[in-house]
Amino acid sequence: MIRMPEPDQQVLARRGEIIAALRRIVPGEGVVENENELRAFECDGLTAYRQLPMIAVLPSTTAQVAEVLRYCKANNIRIVPRGAGTSLSGGAMPLADGILLGMGKFKKILEIDLPNRCAVVQPGVTNLGISQAVRGQGLYYAPDPSSQIACTIGGNVAENSGGVHCLKYGLTTNNVIGVEIVTLDGEIIRLGGKHFDGPGYDLLGALVGSEGMLGVVTEVTVRLLPIPPTARALMIGFPSVESAGDCVAAVIAAGIIPGGMEIMDKLATEAAEAFVHAGYPLDVAALLIVELDGCAAEVDHLVAAVEHIATQHQAVSCRASTSEEERLLFWAGRKAAFPAVGRISPDYYCMDGTIPRKRIAEVLRRMTEMEQTYGLRVANVFHAGDGNLHPLILYDANRPGELQRAEDFGADILRLCVEVGGVLTGEHGVGVEKRDLMPTMFNETDLAQQQALKCAFDDAGLLNPGKVFPQLCRCAELGRMHIHGGKLPFPELERF
C-alpha cells in the first residue's frame, strides 16, 4: 500500500476556522467542504487509491491563488494543486489534512500572438483547445497526449506530458516558453516569456515536470507551430512485436524522424478495432502506425522509404492513408486504445517507462515472460519512436490479491526499464505510483540534490507533499551533518 504523510491532527481540529478564512479569500462557491461534493476530488487517474481532501478551494484569479498560498504557509497547511485530474501517477491525490487547490476556473486563452507564433493561456485550458483556437491561422500546439480532449495545459506542465507527436516536435518542456507561477510565499513571478531563451539558471526547465511541488502555475505561454502542408500515415502489420520494434529502430537509424510512430500489440489492436472500427488488420501480432509530414514530395519519398524498411523487417501488410479522413481514422484507434482496453478487462493498470529504442524487442520479450510469472495479461500500447512504453496490465480488483499482483508486475516492468538503460517515467510523472522506485534509478546523493531544489522553493514542504521522494523528510533534515570516526568531513573548511 502507498504510504502518505500522517495527517496533522492540529490542522484537522481547526477545519472550521480554516473554511471560514478561505471563504473570505474565495467567496461564493469557491470553497467546497461537503463530503459528498468532495468525492469529485478524491482521486485522479490512478483510481486504485482514494482520499478525501480536507477542503477543496476553487480560485478564479491569480490574486486569490496567492492569498490562499500565503494563508496556507502562515498556518502550516498542506496544498495539492489539481488540474483536470487525469494524472495516471497519483500526482493530484489529495491529503486528508490538506487543501486541494483546483485550477479548473482558469480556462481562458488570454492572447494569440501570431507575429511571435505563441499563445498565452490559463492552466485550465485543455490541450486540444489550444490547437482548435489557432487552427484557422494554420497553426497548432504540438504535444498531444491521448487524453488531450480533457487534460489541461497546467497539468501538462506539471507532468511534462508528451503524446504521439513528441518524437519529432518534443514534449511540453520543448513547447512551453514561459509561465507565471505563484510561490508558497504568495509571490507572483514570471519565468521565460515570448523570447527564445533567457540568461541565468534554467528555472523554467526545472518547473516543467516538477509535479506541482515548486509553485502553482497560473499562466502559460506556449509555442505554436505551422500545420504541416502534407501528412500521411502508414499502418503496418508484423508477425511479432519484436519485428515491429526492430523496424522502429531501423527507421530512426536511417535518419528518418516521423511525426509519430506508435505500436499496438495484438490484444490492444483487437480492442481498439472493436471500439473504433479503424480498419486495423486483426491477423497480425503487432501494428505499427507511422506518420510522415512535410511538403508533398518529401512525404511521398519518406512513405516509400519506410515501406521498404518495413518489408525488410518481415512486415506482412502495409497500407498508406490516401486522405486526411483516413489518416485521422488510423490514429483514432490509437488515441482510443486506453478506453478500448477498458472494455475487455474490469480494471487495468497503465504503466509509463522509457527505454532505448534498440532494446524494445528485448523488453517486450521479457514482459511476455513476466505475464506467465504473474498470471496477468498485458496489452502493449506505446510511443515506439522515443521508447516510451505504456503497458496496460489487465486485472480484476474484485479478486483478492490481483491489484497487488498488478502493482508488483508494474514495478518489475519499471525496474526492467532502468536495467536496460531507460528511466522510470516518460510523461506520466512519478507522483505516488513510482515514488518508492526512485532509488532504483537515483542514489541517495541524487535524491538529496533533487529535494534541495524543492526546498529552495518550498522550505516548509507544504506543496504536494508525499509525492516523488521516497523518504518523507523535512527540508531541515537535508542539512544534517554526517560524522564518521568522530571527525567532521572537510575539517579545513570554516563552519558557519
From TrEMBL:
<keyword id="KW-0274">FAD</keyword>
<dbReference type="Pfam" id="PF01565">
    <property type="entry name" value="FAD_binding_4"/>
</dbReference>
<protein>
    <submittedName>
        <fullName>Glycolate oxidase</fullName>
        <ecNumber>1.1.3.15</ecNumber>
    </submittedName>
</protein>
<dbReference type="InterPro" id="IPR051914">
    <property type="entry name" value="FAD-linked_OxidoTrans_Type4"/>
</dbReference>
<keyword id="KW-0560">Oxidoreductase</keyword>
<dbReference type="InterPro" id="IPR016169">
    <property type="entry name" value="FAD-bd_PCMH_sub2"/>
</dbReference>
<dbReference type="InterPro" id="IPR006094">
    <property type="entry name" value="Oxid_FAD_bind_N"/>
</dbReference>
<dbReference type="Pfam" id="PF02913">
    <property type="entry name" value="FAD-oxidase_C"/>
</dbReference>
<dbReference type="InterPro" id="IPR036318">
    <property type="entry name" value="FAD-bd_PCMH-like_sf"/>
</dbReference>
<dbReference type="GO" id="GO:0071949">
    <property type="term" value="F:FAD binding"/>
</dbReference>
<dbReference type="InterPro" id="IPR004113">
    <property type="entry name" value="FAD-bd_oxidored_4_C"/>
</dbReference>
<dbReference type="GO" id="GO:0003973">
    <property type="term" value="F:(S)-2-hydroxy-acid oxidase activity"/>
</dbReference>
<dbReference type="InterPro" id="IPR016171">
    <property type="entry name" value="Vanillyl_alc_oxidase_C-sub2"/>
</dbReference>
<feature type="domain" description="FAD-binding PCMH-type">
    <location>
        <begin position="49"/>
        <end position="227"/>
    </location>
</feature>
<dbReference type="InterPro" id="IPR016164">
    <property type="entry name" value="FAD-linked_Oxase-like_C"/>
</dbReference>
<keyword id="KW-0285">Flavoprotein</keyword>
<dbReference type="InterPro" id="IPR016166">
    <property type="entry name" value="FAD-bd_PCMH"/>
</dbReference>
